[in-house]
Amino acid sequence: xxxxxxxxxGSTVLRPGSTASELSFLAVHGDAxxxxxxxxxxxxxxxxxxxxxxxxxxxxxxxxxxxxxxLAQPNLLKAWPDAAVLALLRLPQAPEWFRYHAxxxxxxxxxxxxxxxxxxxxxxxxxxxxxxxxVVRARIAARTDVSAELLHTLAHDPDYGVRLxxxxxxxxxxxxxxxxxxxxxxxxxxxxxxxxxxxxAPCCSCCACGRAEISx
Length: 216
Known about the structure:
- With 216 residues, the chain is mostly helical.
- It has a domain of 97 residues.
- 49% of the residues lie in helices and 0% in strands.
- It contains 14 helices and no strands.
- Helix 8 runs parallel beside helix 10 and helix 12 packs parallel to helix 14.
- The longest helix is centred in the first third of the chain and has 9 residues.
- The chain starts with 19 loop residues before the first helix and ends in a 23-residue tail after the last helix.
């Protein structure tokens, strides 16, 4: 009505002093703005943030309580579901401290998502390039911010799925190209010989299709 001030659904129920109990109740509110407000509220318990992160990753990541939460519960992310960690990892602003904890996850899906993150430091890239899972190393091989030295190392990776990911690139240094042209895998040699031919490139980001190759 005229003269009335409009409020968002969240503003009518959320208060700066809302308690953890109240926030737990509001976390299942039917209105998304209310749930988003809970995700951003500094009094929201860490466990509840983990439940809300998949739906409201930006609000959870921007929650002002993180410095205190990290001090009080340094391993709190271990209790979060993978969906929550993945949602935050998809944010380009996911900070280094969060990526550090994500790197400790036992989930391969989380590790692959971490390898895709656009803000990885050289140290993080180097660490993931030595990951035990070939698909994580393949994601690193596909990055455009990998050093020439590391590209050379990946060109000699023991798993040809990693070398295949590398061969599909058109910006490799000459030393890496030369190594891949001598690759024991016929499929890798085929891809590196025709980098501009879509039919010769891997059909998926993880190079899984190439792993069906039976013999070199």
